[in-house]
Amino acid sequence: MLVEDVMDFLRQVPPFQFLDGKDLKAIAGKVSLEFYPKDALILRQKGPASLYLRIIKKGGVKVYRISDSGEEVLIDYRGEGDVFGLLSLMGEDGQKSNVVAVEDTICYLVKKDDVMKLIETNPLFTEYFFKSHMTRYIDKTYDEMHGRNVLAGSGDKLLFTTRVEEIAAREVATATEDVSIQEAAMLMTARKISSLVILDGNGLPAGIVTDRDLREKVVARGRDVDEPVKNVMSLPLVRVDSKDFCFEAVLKMIKYNIHHLLVIRDGELQGVITNHDLMILQGTSPLSFAKDIENQITVEGLAPVAGKINNIVGLLLKDGAKASSIAKVISEINDRLVRKVLGMAERKFGRPPLPYCWIALGSEGRKEQTFKTDQDNALIYADPQGENEALEAGEYFRQFAVFVREALLKCCFPPCPAGFMASNPEWNQPLRTWKKYFTDWVSTPTAEAVLKSLIFFDFRPIYGDMALAGQLRDHLVSILQDEMVFLGFLANKIIRNRPPIGFMKSFVVEKSGEHKDELNLKLKGIAPIVDAVRLFALEKGVAETSTLERMEALRGKHTIVEEYAEELEHAFEFIMLLRITHQYGQIKAGKQPDNFINPDNLSNLQKKTIKDAFSLISRIQDLIIERYKALIL
């Protein structure tokens, strides 16, 4: 090695930059160079103390500890110019952490005796290590370990870490479907339970009777209590696997508006879990918000409840909730609110002249909505027979959609600036018109058509005749078969939105304006992943709309997803969570939430992770170019 080259490098690295020319040259003449391949364990926790201080010349390492419980506790990622091994070098009782190369890494090695001499003779060198380096990482490790212990018993964490089988009632009360309603009620009273599983002639669960069924279907209607209980049991049975986390049970209860779930293990009935069980576990639950929505009978009553939905994000952001989990809960609750408004519209305008289906678009259609965003929706109704029926349906659904738009506005959902709403007559059409839209966009992929496809092809049915949405989805799948020209146009648009990272892995930020020195997490981080996965899903005829569900469905079907699914999922979850946390902080500070962050405000760990995510996106986009190279302009 040339001593001058080593000196040039060390001049850029604290604390070596504080050395005078003589000391710097002396150190540069003694250093050695080592190469560590990716995943190499450089220092091992509880292993022998290091004999060298290592300075990363190229590459990067992960520093972490294994706790007494066997849990990995990340301390930091370190890259070019960072040092590691000082604590080990100075200690006498062995290495305190693991250090692993996260990519091919080259390090300069400075011997222990040389480091100790500098610490003894150079005050600036010593001050840097003891006040900046050591304190920083010791505090970081302690805080993370302490944080995990504090949150270990919190209700929010338990919701995402507790299995259903841990809290479900294991002794399931059952009765045959031919017992009388009175006998069933007496059994529930004697056992002091709120539900009874009803078995068919083969001894298999056929339904469930709850205390609510007895109130609403028997007492309120004056029903004969000698009737067989099967006449009032609830169907269909909704089940949850015993190994699912309680979060999944919450989602199903919100979605189906029920308070009891059957717990199944290896295909057999194991128990019952109730909303009361979940309330006790969590303390405050999203179920309470769903219940508040159901209790409202007017838009004016609904609006204050809708205004509280953002509180759920804070509830779920505590340790344990992934970004996708937060989005699922919020999407289910928002769906409930929209369905409530649609029910109010039906009562106001009377029975619809034709079956219809209300569909969500964009992030709501993908179940990736967090804080309330613009209204993105549309309406499909059955094909009218004759001109009169067409006129009647058109007028009814026009007024209907305007009412819904205004009601959602009162519930803090602003209108879509681009007009992608059912209140716009263009997006309030019979099924045959929708089929023609989709066919035209695919067969003639102009820039406008491609843009609309990115929005509308993520549609998801919310309310009404779901079969209409199913028919439209089937039509889309059929017209996309072997339609590589359209997919090429779609790919062409996707690859133009490159992630904000430069050649030397530096962030590319806004150069001027309101968001100077910031980057757009949604446009440059989330959108490229969403767009790429949508492209693959459309190519393979996958019906799912959420990004993570699409990835799961594409495993084994698409080579790019098969190879990169896990990395893509982690990147998507991380950027989503970073965005949610940023926006929640803005809301708590009384600011309007946006998608812009300053990367200088991120920790080393966050910077490393988001750079890895951006690099992955670039790699996926390069693979898209290769896959569609004959069609990309």
Poorly predicted tracts of residues: 133-156
- The coarse overall form would be globular
Distance between the termini: 47 Å
CATH homolog superfamily of the largest domain: Beta Polymerase, domain 2
CATH architecture of the largest domain: 2-Layer Sandwich
Spatial strand arrangement across the major sheet: 1-8-3-6
Radius of gyration: 30 Å
**Overall helicity:** 40-55%
Main structural class: alpha+beta
* Major sheet characteristics: 4 strands, antiparallel
Structural domain count: 4
Instruction: Count the beta strands.
Output: 20
CATH topology of the largest domain: Beta Polymerase, domain 2
Number of helices: 25
CATH class of the largest domain: Alpha Beta
Mean pLDDT: 84
Strand percentage, roughly?
Answer: 5-15%
Give a short summary of the structure:
The protein is of the alpha+beta class and 633 residues long.
List keywords for this structure.
single chain; 633 residues; alpha+beta; Jelly Rolls; CBS-domain; Beta Polymerase, domain 2; 4 domains; four-stranded antiparallel beta sheet; 25 helices; 20 strands; 51% helix
Q: How would you describe this protein?
A:
There is one protein chain. With 633 residues, the protein is α+β, with helices and mostly antiparallel strands. It folds into 4 domains: 3-151, Jelly Rolls; 162-283, CBS-domain (Roll), CATH 3.10.580.10; 298-438 and 455-465, Beta Polymerase, domain 2 (2-Layer Sandwich); 482-627, Four Helix Bundle (Hemerythrin (Met), subunit A), CATH 1.20.120. Helices cover 51% and strands 15% of the residues. The chain is built from 25 helices and 20 strands. It has a 4-stranded antiparallel sheet. A 4-stranded antiparallel sheet has the order 2-7-4-5. A 4-stranded mixed sheet has the order 17-16-15-18, sandwiched between helices. Helix 8 (181-191) links the parallel strand 9 and strand 10 (195-199).
